[in-house]
Write a structure and sequence with these properties.
The protein is mainly α and 80 residues long. The protein has four helices and two strands. The protein has one domain (5-79). It has a two-stranded parallel ribbon with strand order 1-2. The two termini are 21 Å apart.
């Protein structure tokens, strides 16, 4: 993710531009990163899942991304 993502989102929100973020479920998508997205006034977040774990990871080609995606969704929901 861009290091200045939250600044860009906040800048856009202050000018009436609606932004939705669709981050990849990588190690960079932490609860802190999700909280920053929320605080930046992004309108929403979209996290893709391509099916259950085996299907998702076969399509993505990276082991562990399904669980990271699920964890990110849970964190986003708990952050509101």
């Amino acid at each position: 993710m861009r290091k200045d993502l939250n600044d860009v989102l906040h800048y856009a929100a202050q000018r009436g531009i609606v932004c939705v973020v669709s981050p990849s479920a990588t190690l960079l998508l932490t609860e802190s990163a999700l909280d920053g997205i929320k605080e930046s006034e992004a309108f929403g977040i979209s996290i893709s899942l391509d099916g259950m774990a085996a299907t998702h990871e076969k399509i993505r080609g990276i082991e562990g991304t399904w669980k990271r995606g699920i964890d990110a969704i849970k964190s986003a929901v708990s952050l509101g």
